[in-house]
Amino acid sequence: MELSVTFSEDALTEITIGKHGETAGISDAAFEKIPEAIIKNQSLAVDAISGATYSSQAILDAVADCVAQAGGDAEALCAVAVEGGEETENTVLADADVDVLVIGGGGAGLSAALSASQNGASVILVEKLSALGGNTFRCGGAFNTYDPDRQKDIPMTEALSSAVEKVLAHEDVSEEHAKLKAEVQEQWDEYKASGNTMLFDTPEWHALQSIDAGDYEGNVELVRAFTSNTLDTLNWLSDNGVEWTDQVSTVVGALWNRSHQPPNNSGADIIAALEKNARKSGVDIYLDSKAEELLMEDGRIVGAVITNSEGNEVTVKAAKGVIMATGGFSANVEMRVKYNEQWEDIGDSLKTNNSPGATGDGIVMGEAAGANLVGMGWIQLMPLNSVSGGGISGYVNSSLYCNKEGKRYVAEDERRDVLAAAALAQTDKLFYVVCDQKEAELRGLTQETLDYMVENGLVYSGDTIAELAESMGVPADALEQTVNEFNESVKAGKPDEFGRTTWENTIETGPFYAPSFSPAVHHTMGGLEINGNAEVLDADGNVIPGFYAAGEVTGGIHGTNRVGGNAVPDALCFGKIAGANAAKN
Ligand code: ADP
After folding, report:
1. CB–CB of 494/158 below 8 Å?
2. In this predicted model, what pLDDT tens digit does every residue of 68-122 receive, in sequence order?
3. 289 alpha carbon to ligand 1 midpoint, in Å?
4. Which mutation among 28, 128, 359 tests ligand 1's pocket best, with the greatest number of atoms within 8 A of CB?
5. Across the chain, what does the average pLDDT equal?
6. Is the distance from the beta carbon of residue 128 to the nearest atom of ligand 1 less than 6 Å?
7. Is the C-beta atom of 35 inside 6 A of ligand 1?
8. Sign of the Cα pseudo-torsion (359, 361, 364, 367, in order)
9. Which helix (H) or strand (E) holds 306?
10. CA of 268 to the centre of ligand 1 (A)
11. 36, 58, 392, 553: which is deepest, by most CB within 10 A?
Protein backbone atom coordinates (compact mmCIF):
# COMPACT_ATOMS: atom_id res chain seq x y z
CA MET A 1 0.00 0.00 0.00
CA GLU A 2 1.26 3.46 -0.91
CA LEU A 3 0.08 6.20 1.38
CA SER A 4 1.07 9.80 2.05
CA VAL A 5 0.53 11.87 5.17
CA THR A 6 0.58 15.65 5.45
CA PHE A 7 1.79 17.08 8.76
CA SER A 8 1.56 20.52 10.33
CA GLU A 9 4.04 21.50 13.03
CA ASP A 10 2.31 19.34 15.61
CA ALA A 11 -0.44 17.30 13.96
CA LEU A 12 -1.37 14.86 11.20
CA THR A 13 -3.58 16.88 8.87
CA GLU A 14 -4.28 14.64 5.90
CA ILE A 15 -3.90 10.98 4.85
CA THR A 16 -4.08 10.06 1.20
CA ILE A 17 -4.12 6.45 0.06
CA GLY A 18 -2.37 5.81 -3.25
CA LYS A 19 -1.68 2.57 -5.10
CA HIS A 20 -2.62 -0.55 -3.19
CA GLY A 21 -3.28 -4.25 -3.66
CA GLU A 22 -6.31 -4.44 -1.34
CA THR A 23 -9.51 -5.99 -2.64
CA ALA A 24 -11.84 -3.29 -3.89
CA GLY A 25 -14.95 -3.15 -1.75
CA ILE A 26 -13.67 -5.24 1.14
CA SER A 27 -11.25 -2.48 2.06
CA ASP A 28 -13.64 0.43 1.40
CA ALA A 29 -14.82 0.76 5.00
CA ALA A 30 -11.22 0.79 6.24
CA PHE A 31 -10.16 3.36 3.63
CA GLU A 32 -12.98 5.61 4.62
CA LYS A 33 -12.98 5.26 8.39
CA ILE A 34 -9.40 4.60 9.54
CA PRO A 35 -7.74 7.76 8.14
CA GLU A 36 -10.67 9.84 9.41
CA ALA A 37 -10.35 8.33 12.90
CA ILE A 38 -6.56 8.79 12.96
CA ILE A 39 -6.87 12.47 12.08
CA LYS A 40 -9.78 13.08 14.43
CA ASN A 41 -8.07 11.46 17.40
CA GLN A 42 -4.46 12.22 16.43
CA SER A 43 -3.86 8.64 17.44
CA LEU A 44 -2.65 5.35 15.97
CA ALA A 45 -4.60 3.35 18.55
CA VAL A 46 -7.61 3.32 16.25
CA ASP A 47 -9.51 0.00 16.19
CA ALA A 48 -9.34 -2.02 12.99
CA ILE A 49 -12.55 -2.19 11.03
CA SER A 50 -14.01 -5.66 11.44
CA GLY A 51 -14.20 -7.41 8.09
CA ALA A 52 -11.29 -5.31 6.79
CA THR A 53 -8.73 -6.04 9.48
CA TYR A 54 -5.74 -6.43 7.16
CA SER A 55 -6.54 -3.26 5.23
CA SER A 56 -6.99 -1.38 8.52
CA GLN A 57 -3.67 -2.63 9.82
CA ALA A 58 -1.93 -1.79 6.54
CA ILE A 59 -3.13 1.80 6.82
CA LEU A 60 -2.05 2.08 10.47
CA ASP A 61 1.37 0.59 9.69
CA ALA A 62 1.87 2.88 6.71
CA VAL A 63 0.89 5.99 8.71
CA ALA A 64 3.26 4.91 11.49
CA ASP A 65 6.00 4.64 8.87
CA CYS A 66 5.20 8.16 7.61
CA VAL A 67 5.25 9.52 11.17
CA ALA A 68 8.70 8.01 11.66
CA GLN A 69 9.90 9.42 8.32
CA ALA A 70 8.72 12.86 9.41
CA GLY A 71 10.74 12.56 12.62
CA GLY A 72 7.71 11.90 14.84
CA ASP A 73 7.16 9.28 17.52
CA ALA A 74 4.78 6.62 16.20
CA GLU A 75 4.90 4.69 19.46
CA ALA A 76 3.69 7.69 21.39
CA LEU A 77 0.80 8.09 18.94
CA CYS A 78 -0.15 4.45 19.55
CA ALA A 79 -0.62 5.32 23.23
CA VAL A 80 -3.04 8.21 22.60
CA ALA A 81 -6.55 7.23 23.68
CA VAL A 82 -9.28 7.14 21.05
CA GLU A 83 -12.66 8.65 21.81
CA GLY A 84 -15.62 6.40 21.14
CA GLY A 85 -19.00 7.44 19.79
CA GLU A 86 -18.13 8.19 16.19
CA GLU A 87 -21.42 6.79 14.97
CA THR A 88 -24.16 9.23 14.15
CA GLU A 89 -27.35 8.87 16.11
CA ASN A 90 -29.41 7.06 13.52
CA THR A 91 -26.85 4.33 12.88
CA VAL A 92 -27.04 3.05 16.47
CA LEU A 93 -29.76 0.46 16.82
CA ALA A 94 -32.17 0.93 19.74
CA ASP A 95 -35.07 -1.28 20.87
CA ALA A 96 -37.42 -1.46 17.92
CA ASP A 97 -40.63 -2.93 16.54
CA VAL A 98 -40.68 -3.84 12.89
CA ASP A 99 -42.43 -6.22 10.51
CA VAL A 100 -39.36 -8.16 9.39
CA LEU A 101 -35.91 -8.46 10.94
CA VAL A 102 -33.12 -9.70 8.66
CA ILE A 103 -29.96 -10.96 10.35
CA GLY A 104 -26.87 -10.76 8.14
CA GLY A 105 -26.04 -8.36 5.32
CA GLY A 106 -24.57 -10.65 2.65
CA GLY A 107 -26.29 -11.58 -0.61
CA ALA A 108 -29.08 -13.55 1.06
CA GLY A 109 -29.79 -10.90 3.70
CA LEU A 110 -29.86 -7.95 1.31
CA SER A 111 -32.00 -9.85 -1.16
CA ALA A 112 -34.41 -10.82 1.65
CA ALA A 113 -34.56 -7.27 2.98
CA LEU A 114 -35.22 -5.76 -0.45
CA SER A 115 -37.84 -8.35 -1.27
CA ALA A 116 -39.63 -7.98 2.08
CA SER A 117 -39.62 -4.21 1.72
CA GLN A 118 -40.90 -4.35 -1.85
CA ASN A 119 -43.71 -6.55 -0.55
CA GLY A 120 -44.80 -3.84 1.84
CA ALA A 121 -43.03 -4.77 5.09
CA SER A 122 -41.04 -2.45 7.31
CA VAL A 123 -37.56 -3.98 7.56
CA ILE A 124 -34.50 -3.76 9.79
CA LEU A 125 -31.30 -5.47 8.66
CA VAL A 126 -28.44 -6.01 11.10
CA GLU A 127 -24.89 -6.83 10.04
CA LYS A 128 -22.24 -7.60 12.62
CA LEU A 129 -19.27 -6.35 10.60
CA SER A 130 -18.57 -2.77 9.60
CA ALA A 131 -19.36 -3.48 5.98
CA LEU A 132 -22.13 -5.22 4.09
CA GLY A 133 -21.56 -7.94 1.54
CA GLY A 134 -20.31 -11.10 3.24
CA ASN A 135 -19.02 -13.67 0.81
CA THR A 136 -21.11 -12.49 -2.14
CA PHE A 137 -19.01 -9.34 -1.97
CA ARG A 138 -15.74 -11.27 -2.16
CA CYS A 139 -16.65 -13.64 -4.94
CA GLY A 140 -16.89 -13.29 -8.69
CA GLY A 141 -20.68 -13.16 -8.55
CA ALA A 142 -21.18 -16.27 -10.69
CA PHE A 143 -24.88 -17.03 -11.00
CA ASN A 144 -25.99 -20.28 -12.59
CA THR A 145 -29.27 -20.32 -14.39
CA TYR A 146 -30.62 -21.72 -17.59
CA ASP A 147 -31.20 -18.75 -19.85
CA PRO A 148 -32.41 -19.46 -23.38
CA ASP A 149 -31.38 -15.99 -24.61
CA ARG A 150 -27.80 -15.99 -23.40
CA GLN A 151 -27.23 -19.68 -24.12
CA LYS A 152 -28.55 -19.67 -27.66
CA ASP A 153 -25.17 -19.51 -29.44
CA ILE A 154 -23.41 -22.18 -27.40
CA PRO A 155 -22.95 -25.39 -29.38
CA MET A 156 -23.81 -28.77 -27.93
CA THR A 157 -20.88 -31.18 -28.20
CA GLU A 158 -20.57 -34.93 -28.13
CA ALA A 159 -18.84 -34.66 -24.77
CA LEU A 160 -21.70 -32.60 -23.28
CA SER A 161 -24.26 -35.09 -24.60
CA SER A 162 -22.37 -37.89 -22.92
CA ALA A 163 -22.53 -35.94 -19.63
CA VAL A 164 -26.35 -35.75 -19.89
CA GLU A 165 -26.62 -39.45 -20.74
CA LYS A 166 -24.41 -40.34 -17.78
CA VAL A 167 -26.56 -38.50 -15.23
CA LEU A 168 -29.74 -39.90 -16.78
CA ALA A 169 -28.31 -43.41 -16.47
CA HIS A 170 -28.03 -43.14 -12.68
CA GLU A 171 -30.27 -45.53 -10.77
CA ASP A 172 -33.31 -44.08 -9.02
CA VAL A 173 -32.55 -43.10 -5.45
CA SER A 174 -35.99 -41.82 -4.41
CA GLU A 175 -39.43 -41.23 -5.81
CA GLU A 176 -38.71 -37.52 -6.20
CA HIS A 177 -35.47 -38.24 -8.00
CA ALA A 178 -37.14 -40.76 -10.32
CA LYS A 179 -39.81 -38.20 -11.19
CA LEU A 180 -37.28 -35.47 -11.88
CA LYS A 181 -35.17 -37.83 -13.96
CA ALA A 182 -38.19 -38.87 -16.03
CA GLU A 183 -38.96 -35.19 -16.74
CA VAL A 184 -35.41 -34.52 -17.86
CA GLN A 185 -35.41 -37.70 -19.97
CA GLU A 186 -38.51 -36.44 -21.76
CA GLN A 187 -36.96 -33.02 -22.35
CA TRP A 188 -33.76 -34.66 -23.58
CA ASP A 189 -35.61 -36.96 -25.99
CA GLU A 190 -37.59 -34.01 -27.31
CA TYR A 191 -34.39 -31.98 -27.70
CA LYS A 192 -32.65 -34.76 -29.64
CA ALA A 193 -35.66 -35.30 -31.88
CA SER A 194 -35.78 -31.58 -32.67
CA GLY A 195 -32.35 -31.65 -34.33
CA ASN A 196 -31.26 -28.66 -32.22
CA THR A 197 -27.45 -28.38 -32.22
CA MET A 198 -27.21 -25.70 -29.53
CA LEU A 199 -26.75 -26.26 -25.79
CA PHE A 200 -29.40 -28.29 -23.98
CA ASP A 201 -30.55 -26.75 -20.70
CA THR A 202 -33.67 -26.56 -18.54
CA PRO A 203 -34.36 -25.81 -14.85
CA GLU A 204 -34.97 -29.54 -14.36
CA TRP A 205 -31.62 -30.49 -15.92
CA HIS A 206 -29.92 -27.90 -13.69
CA ALA A 207 -31.69 -29.50 -10.70
CA LEU A 208 -30.81 -33.06 -11.69
CA GLN A 209 -27.20 -32.15 -12.33
CA SER A 210 -26.96 -30.41 -8.94
CA ILE A 211 -28.46 -33.43 -7.19
CA ASP A 212 -26.05 -35.75 -8.99
CA ALA A 213 -23.06 -33.53 -8.13
CA GLY A 214 -24.11 -33.59 -4.45
CA ASP A 215 -24.14 -37.40 -4.42
CA TYR A 216 -27.94 -37.54 -4.14
CA GLU A 217 -27.88 -36.06 -0.64
CA GLY A 218 -29.65 -32.82 -1.60
CA ASN A 219 -33.37 -32.43 -1.06
CA VAL A 220 -34.92 -32.80 -4.54
CA GLU A 221 -37.95 -30.61 -3.82
CA LEU A 222 -35.77 -27.86 -2.42
CA VAL A 223 -33.37 -28.03 -5.35
CA ARG A 224 -36.30 -27.80 -7.75
CA ALA A 225 -37.64 -24.77 -5.85
CA PHE A 226 -34.18 -23.31 -6.36
CA THR A 227 -33.57 -24.00 -10.05
CA SER A 228 -37.11 -23.07 -11.08
CA ASN A 229 -36.57 -19.62 -9.53
CA THR A 230 -33.10 -18.75 -10.79
CA LEU A 231 -34.07 -17.03 -14.04
CA ASP A 232 -36.85 -15.04 -12.36
CA THR A 233 -34.41 -13.96 -9.67
CA LEU A 234 -31.77 -13.01 -12.26
CA ASN A 235 -34.35 -10.83 -14.01
CA TRP A 236 -35.54 -9.34 -10.71
CA LEU A 237 -31.92 -8.46 -9.92
CA SER A 238 -31.58 -6.86 -13.37
CA ASP A 239 -34.70 -4.79 -12.64
CA ASN A 240 -32.98 -3.70 -9.45
CA GLY A 241 -29.83 -2.48 -11.12
CA VAL A 242 -27.61 -5.58 -11.21
CA GLU A 243 -25.87 -5.90 -14.54
CA TRP A 244 -24.96 -9.19 -16.21
CA THR A 245 -22.76 -9.75 -19.23
CA ASP A 246 -24.32 -11.40 -22.28
CA GLN A 247 -21.77 -14.18 -22.20
CA VAL A 248 -22.32 -17.26 -20.05
CA SER A 249 -19.52 -19.67 -19.15
CA THR A 250 -18.66 -22.54 -16.83
CA VAL A 251 -16.99 -21.34 -13.63
CA VAL A 252 -14.90 -23.87 -11.75
CA GLY A 253 -17.00 -26.83 -10.68
CA ALA A 254 -20.10 -25.44 -12.45
CA LEU A 255 -20.35 -28.47 -14.76
CA TRP A 256 -22.44 -26.64 -17.39
CA ASN A 257 -22.35 -23.52 -19.51
CA ARG A 258 -24.81 -21.49 -17.45
CA SER A 259 -22.68 -19.23 -15.21
CA HIS A 260 -23.68 -15.58 -15.55
CA GLN A 261 -21.45 -12.84 -14.22
CA PRO A 262 -21.54 -9.11 -13.53
CA PRO A 263 -19.36 -7.12 -15.97
CA ASN A 264 -16.32 -6.90 -13.68
CA ASN A 265 -16.71 -10.45 -12.37
CA SER A 266 -17.47 -8.75 -9.11
CA GLY A 267 -19.98 -9.88 -6.52
CA ALA A 268 -19.38 -6.46 -4.96
CA ASP A 269 -21.42 -4.94 -7.78
CA ILE A 270 -24.36 -7.19 -6.90
CA ILE A 271 -24.13 -6.06 -3.28
CA ALA A 272 -23.86 -2.38 -4.23
CA ALA A 273 -27.04 -2.55 -6.32
CA LEU A 274 -28.93 -4.48 -3.64
CA GLU A 275 -27.83 -2.09 -0.90
CA LYS A 276 -28.77 0.96 -2.94
CA ASN A 277 -32.22 -0.38 -3.73
CA ALA A 278 -32.82 -1.73 -0.23
CA ARG A 279 -32.04 1.67 1.29
CA LYS A 280 -34.13 3.40 -1.37
CA SER A 281 -36.99 1.08 -0.60
CA GLY A 282 -36.79 2.05 3.10
CA VAL A 283 -34.82 -0.81 4.68
CA ASP A 284 -33.04 0.37 7.85
CA ILE A 285 -29.51 -1.05 7.84
CA TYR A 286 -27.40 -1.22 10.99
CA LEU A 287 -23.72 -2.14 10.77
CA ASP A 288 -21.55 -3.35 13.67
CA SER A 289 -24.76 -4.85 15.08
CA LYS A 290 -24.58 -8.51 16.04
CA ALA A 291 -27.55 -10.78 16.63
CA GLU A 292 -26.97 -12.85 19.76
CA GLU A 293 -30.16 -14.80 20.33
CA LEU A 294 -33.60 -15.39 18.87
CA LEU A 295 -36.68 -14.54 20.90
CA MET A 296 -39.46 -17.09 21.01
CA GLU A 297 -43.01 -16.70 22.31
CA ASP A 298 -45.53 -19.57 22.23
CA GLY A 299 -43.46 -21.48 19.69
CA ARG A 300 -43.12 -18.49 17.36
CA ILE A 301 -39.95 -16.54 16.61
CA VAL A 302 -40.80 -12.95 17.46
CA GLY A 303 -37.50 -11.12 17.30
CA ALA A 304 -33.89 -11.15 18.41
CA VAL A 305 -31.46 -9.70 20.89
CA ILE A 306 -28.82 -7.60 19.17
CA THR A 307 -25.59 -6.10 20.47
CA ASN A 308 -25.56 -2.67 18.82
CA SER A 309 -22.59 -0.67 17.57
CA GLU A 310 -22.07 0.86 21.03
CA GLY A 311 -21.90 -2.55 22.65
CA ASN A 312 -25.37 -2.38 24.23
CA GLU A 313 -27.91 -5.18 24.05
CA VAL A 314 -31.18 -4.13 22.43
CA THR A 315 -34.32 -6.03 21.41
CA VAL A 316 -35.86 -5.97 17.96
CA LYS A 317 -39.40 -7.34 17.83
CA ALA A 318 -40.42 -8.57 14.37
CA ALA A 319 -44.19 -9.03 13.97
CA LYS A 320 -44.05 -10.85 10.65
CA GLY A 321 -40.84 -12.80 10.96
CA VAL A 322 -37.10 -13.08 11.39
CA ILE A 323 -34.97 -14.05 8.39
CA MET A 324 -31.67 -15.68 9.26
CA ALA A 325 -29.03 -14.91 6.63
CA THR A 326 -25.78 -15.16 8.55
CA GLY A 327 -23.88 -17.39 6.11
CA GLY A 328 -21.85 -20.51 6.87
CA PHE A 329 -19.04 -21.41 9.27
CA SER A 330 -15.93 -21.62 7.09
CA ALA A 331 -14.21 -19.03 9.29
CA ASN A 332 -14.94 -20.94 12.50
CA VAL A 333 -12.22 -23.58 12.87
CA GLU A 334 -13.81 -25.10 15.96
CA MET A 335 -17.14 -25.67 14.21
CA ARG A 336 -15.38 -26.96 11.10
CA VAL A 337 -13.56 -29.57 13.14
CA LYS A 338 -16.67 -30.43 15.14
CA TYR A 339 -18.87 -31.18 12.13
CA ASN A 340 -16.45 -32.24 9.37
CA GLU A 341 -17.09 -35.73 7.98
CA GLN A 342 -15.46 -35.27 4.62
CA TRP A 343 -11.79 -34.37 4.92
CA GLU A 344 -8.86 -35.84 6.75
CA ASP A 345 -7.92 -32.46 8.21
CA ILE A 346 -10.09 -29.36 8.14
CA GLY A 347 -8.42 -27.50 11.04
CA ASP A 348 -5.84 -24.74 11.12
CA SER A 349 -3.73 -26.32 8.38
CA LEU A 350 -6.24 -25.02 5.85
CA LYS A 351 -6.98 -21.36 5.24
CA THR A 352 -10.39 -20.02 4.37
CA ASN A 353 -11.12 -17.47 1.68
CA ASN A 354 -14.35 -16.46 3.44
CA SER A 355 -15.42 -13.27 5.14
CA PRO A 356 -14.36 -13.27 8.82
CA GLY A 357 -18.08 -13.01 9.59
CA ALA A 358 -18.69 -16.62 8.47
CA THR A 359 -18.64 -18.05 11.99
CA GLY A 360 -21.86 -20.05 11.97
CA ASP A 361 -23.76 -17.75 14.39
CA GLY A 362 -27.11 -18.33 12.70
CA ILE A 363 -26.72 -22.09 12.89
CA VAL A 364 -26.06 -21.90 16.63
CA MET A 365 -28.94 -19.43 17.22
CA GLY A 366 -31.28 -21.45 14.99
CA GLU A 367 -30.47 -24.75 16.64
CA ALA A 368 -31.08 -23.21 20.06
CA ALA A 369 -34.52 -22.16 18.78
CA GLY A 370 -35.36 -25.73 17.74
CA ALA A 371 -34.32 -25.74 14.08
CA ASN A 372 -33.21 -28.99 12.51
CA LEU A 373 -29.67 -29.06 11.11
CA VAL A 374 -28.94 -30.96 7.90
CA GLY A 375 -25.77 -31.84 5.99
CA MET A 376 -23.45 -30.32 8.59
CA GLY A 377 -20.55 -32.68 7.84
CA TRP A 378 -20.09 -31.56 4.24
CA ILE A 379 -17.62 -28.77 3.80
CA GLN A 380 -16.41 -27.53 0.46
CA LEU A 381 -12.79 -26.72 -0.25
CA MET A 382 -12.22 -24.23 -3.03
CA PRO A 383 -9.52 -25.72 -5.20
CA LEU A 384 -8.74 -22.36 -6.81
CA ASN A 385 -7.44 -20.49 -3.79
CA SER A 386 -4.67 -18.17 -4.90
CA VAL A 387 -1.15 -18.74 -3.56
CA SER A 388 0.84 -16.48 -5.88
CA GLY A 389 -1.70 -13.69 -5.32
CA GLY A 390 -3.09 -13.30 -8.82
CA GLY A 391 -5.88 -14.94 -10.74
CA ILE A 392 -6.54 -14.94 -14.42
CA SER A 393 -9.02 -17.55 -15.31
CA GLY A 394 -11.48 -19.10 -12.92
CA TYR A 395 -13.14 -20.55 -15.97
CA VAL A 396 -12.92 -24.11 -17.00
CA ASN A 397 -13.48 -23.53 -20.67
CA SER A 398 -9.94 -22.77 -21.84
CA SER A 399 -7.38 -23.46 -19.16
CA LEU A 400 -5.50 -26.43 -17.80
CA TYR A 401 -4.30 -27.30 -14.32
CA CYS A 402 -0.80 -28.70 -13.91
CA ASN A 403 1.29 -29.71 -10.92
CA LYS A 404 4.91 -28.92 -10.02
CA GLU A 405 5.98 -31.69 -12.37
CA GLY A 406 4.33 -29.81 -15.26
CA LYS A 407 1.67 -32.48 -15.72
CA ARG A 408 -2.12 -32.44 -15.71
CA TYR A 409 -3.61 -34.62 -13.00
CA VAL A 410 -7.39 -34.08 -13.12
CA ALA A 411 -10.28 -33.15 -15.43
CA GLU A 412 -10.55 -29.39 -14.88
CA ASP A 413 -14.32 -29.51 -15.38
CA GLU A 414 -14.77 -31.90 -12.46
CA ARG A 415 -16.72 -31.28 -9.27
CA ARG A 416 -15.03 -29.08 -6.70
CA ASP A 417 -14.55 -31.87 -4.15
CA VAL A 418 -12.79 -33.98 -6.77
CA LEU A 419 -10.63 -31.02 -7.82
CA ALA A 420 -9.74 -30.19 -4.20
CA ALA A 421 -8.91 -33.79 -3.27
CA ALA A 422 -6.77 -34.12 -6.40
CA ALA A 423 -4.96 -30.85 -5.65
CA LEU A 424 -4.25 -31.86 -2.04
CA ALA A 425 -2.54 -34.99 -3.41
CA GLN A 426 -0.03 -32.99 -5.52
CA THR A 427 3.45 -31.95 -4.41
CA ASP A 428 3.13 -29.16 -1.78
CA LYS A 429 -0.68 -29.28 -2.32
CA LEU A 430 0.03 -26.80 -5.09
CA PHE A 431 -1.06 -26.45 -8.70
CA TYR A 432 -0.97 -23.91 -11.52
CA VAL A 433 -3.68 -22.78 -13.91
CA VAL A 434 -2.08 -22.32 -17.31
CA CYS A 435 -3.75 -20.07 -19.85
CA ASP A 436 -2.82 -17.82 -22.73
CA GLN A 437 -3.19 -14.17 -23.74
CA LYS A 438 -6.35 -14.89 -25.70
CA GLU A 439 -8.04 -16.43 -22.63
CA ALA A 440 -6.95 -13.56 -20.39
CA GLU A 441 -8.41 -11.02 -22.81
CA LEU A 442 -11.56 -13.04 -23.25
CA ARG A 443 -12.06 -12.81 -19.50
CA GLY A 444 -11.88 -9.03 -19.65
CA LEU A 445 -8.43 -8.52 -18.12
CA THR A 446 -6.74 -5.37 -19.37
CA GLN A 447 -3.09 -5.39 -20.40
CA GLU A 448 -2.41 -3.01 -17.52
CA THR A 449 -3.76 -5.52 -14.98
CA LEU A 450 -1.84 -8.37 -16.59
CA ASP A 451 1.41 -6.36 -16.59
CA TYR A 452 0.81 -5.38 -12.95
CA MET A 453 0.34 -9.03 -11.95
CA VAL A 454 3.45 -10.14 -13.86
CA GLU A 455 5.63 -7.30 -12.54
CA ASN A 456 4.55 -7.96 -8.96
CA GLY A 457 5.06 -11.72 -9.16
CA LEU A 458 1.35 -12.49 -8.76
CA VAL A 459 1.38 -14.72 -11.82
CA TYR A 460 4.17 -16.51 -13.65
CA SER A 461 4.51 -15.72 -17.34
CA GLY A 462 6.56 -16.34 -20.45
CA ASP A 463 6.42 -15.60 -24.18
CA THR A 464 6.71 -19.31 -24.90
CA ILE A 465 5.61 -22.35 -22.91
CA ALA A 466 9.28 -23.11 -22.22
CA GLU A 467 9.82 -19.62 -20.79
CA LEU A 468 6.65 -19.93 -18.74
CA ALA A 469 7.88 -23.28 -17.37
CA GLU A 470 11.17 -21.68 -16.41
CA SER A 471 9.43 -18.88 -14.54
CA MET A 472 7.22 -21.44 -12.72
CA GLY A 473 10.19 -23.69 -11.98
CA VAL A 474 8.62 -26.75 -13.63
CA PRO A 475 10.28 -28.97 -16.27
CA ALA A 476 9.86 -27.27 -19.67
CA ASP A 477 9.64 -30.46 -21.75
CA ALA A 478 6.89 -31.83 -19.51
CA LEU A 479 4.85 -28.63 -19.68
CA GLU A 480 5.27 -28.38 -23.47
CA GLN A 481 4.04 -31.92 -23.87
CA THR A 482 1.11 -31.24 -21.50
CA VAL A 483 0.01 -28.16 -23.44
CA ASN A 484 0.37 -29.94 -26.80
CA GLU A 485 -1.74 -32.85 -25.64
CA PHE A 486 -4.32 -30.44 -24.19
CA ASN A 487 -4.57 -28.61 -27.53
CA GLU A 488 -5.07 -31.92 -29.35
CA SER A 489 -7.93 -32.73 -26.98
CA VAL A 490 -9.56 -29.32 -27.57
CA LYS A 491 -9.53 -30.04 -31.29
CA ALA A 492 -10.93 -33.55 -30.79
CA GLY A 493 -13.69 -32.30 -28.41
CA LYS A 494 -14.10 -35.73 -26.83
CA PRO A 495 -13.66 -36.86 -23.23
CA ASP A 496 -9.91 -37.20 -22.58
CA GLU A 497 -7.94 -39.60 -20.37
CA PHE A 498 -9.13 -37.74 -17.23
CA GLY A 499 -12.73 -37.64 -18.45
CA ARG A 500 -12.79 -33.90 -19.19
CA THR A 501 -15.74 -33.00 -21.42
CA THR A 502 -15.71 -29.17 -21.58
CA TRP A 503 -13.49 -27.90 -24.38
CA GLU A 504 -13.38 -24.45 -25.89
CA ASN A 505 -10.07 -22.82 -26.85
CA THR A 506 -6.53 -24.07 -27.31
CA ILE A 507 -3.63 -22.59 -25.36
CA GLU A 508 -1.31 -21.28 -28.07
CA THR A 509 -1.38 -17.48 -28.18
CA GLY A 510 1.53 -16.11 -26.14
CA PRO A 511 2.36 -14.65 -23.75
CA PHE A 512 1.30 -17.43 -21.42
CA TYR A 513 0.31 -17.04 -17.77
CA ALA A 514 0.13 -19.32 -14.73
CA PRO A 515 -0.93 -18.24 -11.24
CA SER A 516 -0.53 -20.85 -8.48
CA PHE A 517 -3.23 -22.20 -6.19
CA SER A 518 -3.87 -24.43 -3.19
CA PRO A 519 -7.29 -25.45 -1.76
CA ALA A 520 -8.96 -23.44 1.05
CA VAL A 521 -12.16 -23.87 3.06
CA HIS A 522 -14.84 -22.21 0.98
CA HIS A 523 -18.42 -23.22 1.67
CA THR A 524 -20.27 -25.14 4.34
CA MET A 525 -23.08 -27.11 2.73
CA GLY A 526 -24.98 -27.88 5.92
CA GLY A 527 -27.19 -25.68 8.07
CA LEU A 528 -30.78 -24.93 9.05
CA GLU A 529 -33.33 -27.10 7.29
CA ILE A 530 -35.83 -25.08 5.23
CA ASN A 531 -38.66 -25.85 2.83
CA GLY A 532 -39.23 -24.29 -0.60
CA ASN A 533 -40.86 -21.25 1.06
CA ALA A 534 -37.63 -20.60 3.00
CA GLU A 535 -39.43 -21.48 6.24
CA VAL A 536 -37.24 -23.09 8.88
CA LEU A 537 -38.21 -26.60 9.99
CA ASP A 538 -37.81 -28.36 13.30
CA ALA A 539 -36.62 -31.94 13.81
CA ASP A 540 -40.16 -33.26 13.10
CA GLY A 541 -40.38 -31.43 9.81
CA ASN A 542 -42.78 -28.80 11.17
CA VAL A 543 -42.46 -25.15 10.23
CA ILE A 544 -41.24 -22.92 13.07
CA PRO A 545 -43.64 -19.97 12.76
CA GLY A 546 -42.05 -16.61 12.10
CA PHE A 547 -38.68 -18.14 11.25
CA TYR A 548 -37.15 -17.98 7.76
CA ALA A 549 -33.65 -18.61 6.50
CA ALA A 550 -31.75 -18.15 3.24
CA GLY A 551 -28.28 -18.65 1.84
CA GLU A 552 -25.31 -20.47 3.28
CA VAL A 553 -26.84 -20.66 6.77
CA THR A 554 -29.26 -23.25 5.35
CA GLY A 555 -28.63 -26.88 4.43
CA GLY A 556 -30.25 -29.43 2.16
CA ILE A 557 -29.62 -27.97 -1.28
CA HIS A 558 -26.07 -28.79 -2.20
CA GLY A 559 -25.69 -32.28 -0.74
CA THR A 560 -22.08 -33.32 -0.33
CA ASN A 561 -20.73 -30.92 -2.92
CA ARG A 562 -21.96 -27.53 -4.03
CA VAL A 563 -21.87 -26.90 -7.75
CA GLY A 564 -19.65 -23.89 -8.59
CA GLY A 565 -21.84 -20.87 -9.39
CA ASN A 566 -24.84 -22.24 -7.43
CA ALA A 567 -24.13 -20.36 -4.16
CA VAL A 568 -24.96 -16.84 -5.27
CA PRO A 569 -28.26 -17.83 -6.92
CA ASP A 570 -29.08 -20.00 -3.88
CA ALA A 571 -28.59 -17.04 -1.54
CA LEU A 572 -30.38 -14.55 -3.76
CA CYS A 573 -33.30 -16.81 -4.78
CA PHE A 574 -34.10 -17.95 -1.27
CA GLY A 575 -33.49 -14.45 0.08
CA LYS A 576 -36.11 -13.17 -2.35
CA ILE A 577 -38.50 -15.98 -1.45
CA ALA A 578 -37.96 -15.53 2.31
CA GLY A 579 -38.51 -11.78 2.11
CA ALA A 580 -41.70 -12.09 0.10
CA ASN A 581 -43.15 -14.83 2.33
CA ALA A 582 -42.29 -13.11 5.60
CA ALA A 583 -43.86 -9.87 4.35
CA LYS A 584 -47.09 -11.69 3.47
CA ASN A 585 -47.57 -13.04 7.01
P1 ADP B 1 -24.94 -15.55 2.26
O2 ADP B 1 -24.18 -15.85 1.01
O3 ADP B 1 -25.79 -16.67 2.68
O4 ADP B 1 -25.61 -14.22 2.19
P5 ADP B 1 -22.60 -14.43 3.57
O6 ADP B 1 -21.55 -15.14 4.31
O7 ADP B 1 -22.26 -13.82 2.27
O8 ADP B 1 -23.83 -15.44 3.42
O9 ADP B 1 -23.21 -13.25 4.46
C10 ADP B 1 -23.58 -13.43 5.78
C11 ADP B 1 -23.44 -12.11 6.51
O12 ADP B 1 -23.98 -12.25 7.82
C13 ADP B 1 -21.99 -11.68 6.69
O14 ADP B 1 -21.84 -10.36 6.26
C15 ADP B 1 -21.76 -11.81 8.19
O16 ADP B 1 -20.84 -10.88 8.70
C17 ADP B 1 -23.15 -11.58 8.74
N18 ADP B 1 -23.36 -12.16 10.09
C19 ADP B 1 -22.88 -13.34 10.55
N20 ADP B 1 -23.27 -13.54 11.83
C21 ADP B 1 -24.00 -12.46 12.18
C22 ADP B 1 -24.67 -12.07 13.39
N23 ADP B 1 -24.63 -12.83 14.49
N24 ADP B 1 -25.34 -10.89 13.40
C25 ADP B 1 -25.36 -10.09 12.30
N26 ADP B 1 -24.72 -10.39 11.15
C27 ADP B 1 -24.07 -11.56 11.08
Report:
1. yes
2. 889 888 878 877 878 764 444 448 999 999 999 999 999 999 999 999 999 999 9
3. 11
4. 128
5. 92
6. yes
7. no
8. negative
9. strand 300-307
10. 15
11. 553
